[in-house]
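Quick start: what a row looks like.
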Amino acid sequence: MQYLNAFWVGGLLCAIAQILIDKTKLTPARILVLYVVIGAALGAVGIYDKIVDYAGAGATVPLMGFGNVLAQGVKKAVDADGPLGIITGGASAAAGGISAAVFFGFVIALIFDPKAK
């Protein structure tokens, strides 16, 4: 059942983004930022954790999950380090995902021949 929940929640998030792209004048970049901010806000107040418990990867993989990771990292770092955690918490919590994105992007660029459009 968890696979089904992940599928429909992740699909719903993607469908909403596609509708925003098709029906509004929002650019994809603005929609991405909107999703990260919504995820961070929902994570900061504790709502996104309930969504993650229900949908698993359907909620953690999309960009709202990245915003949630940033918010959780800041909360943890502020508890541990005080006000300095506001600056360092998000980056340290998301460091693994960011590093993986950079590494795999580099590997793919070596395998294929990327060209600017």
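That is the whole record. The chain has one domain: 2-111. The two ends are 42 Å apart (CA to CA).
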